[in-house]
C-alpha cells in the first residue's frame, strides 16, 4: 500500500505509511501532492459503512473542531470501490500511551487535561443533540503531547440523541453505561459515563469494573453505587420493550437476586 496514490476531490494523496488496520478498514498516513501537509486517511472497504461514517461526521460539522477538541475531517471521496475519509493527523491514542507505559498510573495533570477537554467536547455534542456512543481509550488521542492537547475521534456510530435505540449493544464493554446494559432509556449521559471510565482507567491503569459478563459488571457497580430504583427496573422489565436477552436477564436478577447463577 505504501507509495500508492488516492485521488480525492481536493487533490491527490500519496500513502506514506500504514498507521493501523482493523475490522473497519485501514488508516494511512498520507501527503497531498504539492503540499507537505500530512493527513490520516481512513480507507473503508465496506462502502455503506463508509457512507454512514461520513453522515455521522456531517452531524458535527457545525462545531469548531479546535475549540471543542474534535477530530477535523477535510473531505470524503470514493476511489476504486472504497470510501476514503481524510482527517487531520494526530499523535497516539490513550490506549497506545497506556500500553507504552505498561498501564502505570498516569499523573493527575494528564487526567485533568483529558477531563477538561473532553467535557468541552461532550458539552458541544450535547448542544447539537448528538451522542458519540463509542468513547473509549482508543478514541481519545493526543493532538499535541507536549502541551497536553487531546481530541475525540471516530464518530462512526454517533447518532442524534432522539435516535438512540433501547436494547442495542452499543459502547465498548469496559465503558458501557449501566442503562445500556439494562436496556433502560438512553440519553447523552452514556457518553459521560464512558468518559468517567476512561478517566478512572487512565488514572489507575486498570478497568474499574470486570467486563467479561454483563451481570458481573452490573454487580460490581451495584456494590459501589447501590441498586437502581426498583420502580424504574420493574417498569421496564414488564414494559415489553425489547432490550435484548442479556439486558432482560440483568434486570430480572437485580429484581430477584436469588435467581443469579
UniProtKB/TrEMBL annotation:
| Residues the record lists as binding ATP | 42
Which superkingdom is the protein from? Eukaryota
From the UniProt record, which GO molecular function terms apply? ATP binding; protein serine/threonine kinase activity; protein tyrosine kinase activity; SMAD binding; transcription corepressor activity
Q: Which GO terms describe its biological process?
A: intrinsic apoptotic signaling pathway in response to DNA damage by p53 class mediator; positive regulation of transcription by RNA polymerase II; smoothened signaling pathway
Q: Which UniProt keywords apply?
A: ATP-binding, Kinase, Nucleotide-binding, Serine/threonine-protein kinase, Transferase
Supply the Pfam families for this chain: Pkinase
Q: Which family does it belong to?
A: Belongs to the protein kinase superfamily.
Name listed for the protein in its UniProt record: Protein kinase domain-containing protein
- What high-level taxonomic lineage is stated for the organism? Eukaryota, Metazoa, Chordata, Craniata, Vertebrata
Amino acid at each position: 500500500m505504501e507509495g500508492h496514490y488516492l485521488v480525492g476531490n481536493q487533490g491527490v494523496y500519496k500513502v506514506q505509511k500504514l498507521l493501523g488496520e482493523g475490522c473497519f478498514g485501514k488508516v494511512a498516513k498520507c501527503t497531498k501532492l504539492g503540499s507537505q501537509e500530512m493527513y490520516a486517511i481512513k480507507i473503508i472497504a465496506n462502502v455503506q459503512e463508509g457512507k454512514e461514517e461520513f453522515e455521522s461526521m456531517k452531524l458535527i460539522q457545525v462545531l469548531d473542531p479546535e475549540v471543542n477538541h474534535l477530530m477535523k475531517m477535510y473531505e470524503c471521496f470514493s476511489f476504486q470501490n472504497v470510501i476514503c475519509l481524510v482527517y487531520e493527523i494526530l499523535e497516539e491514542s490513550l490506549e497506545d500511551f497506556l500500553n507504552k507505559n505498561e498501564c502505570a498510573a498516569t499523573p493527575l495533570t494528564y487526567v485533568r487535561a483529558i477531563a477538561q477537554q473532553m467535557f468541552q467536547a461532550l458539552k458541544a455534542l450535547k448542544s447539537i443533540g448528538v451522542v458519540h456512543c463509542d468513547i473509549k481509550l482508543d478514541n481519545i488521542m493526543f493532538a499535541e503531547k507536549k502541551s497536553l492537547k487531546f481530541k475525540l475521534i471516530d464518530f462512526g456510530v454517533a447518532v442524534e440523541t432522539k435516535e438512540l435505540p433501547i436494547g442495542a449493544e452499543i459502547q465498548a464493554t469496559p465503558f458501557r453505561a449501566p442503562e445500556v446494559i439494562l436496556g433502560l432509556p438512553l440519553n447523552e449521559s452514556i457518553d459521560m459515563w464512558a468518559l468517567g471510565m476512561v478517566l478512572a482507567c487512565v488514572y489507575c491503569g486498570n478497568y474499574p469494573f470486570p467486563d467479561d459478563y454483563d451481570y458481573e459488571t452490573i454487580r460490581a457497580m451495584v456494590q459501589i453505587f447501590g441498586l437502581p430504583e426498583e420502580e424504574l427496573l420493574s417498569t421496564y422489565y414488564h414494559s415489553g420493550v425489547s432490550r435484548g436477552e442479556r439486558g432482560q436477564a440483568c434486570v430480572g436478577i437485580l429484581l430477584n437476586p436469588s435467581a443469579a447463577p
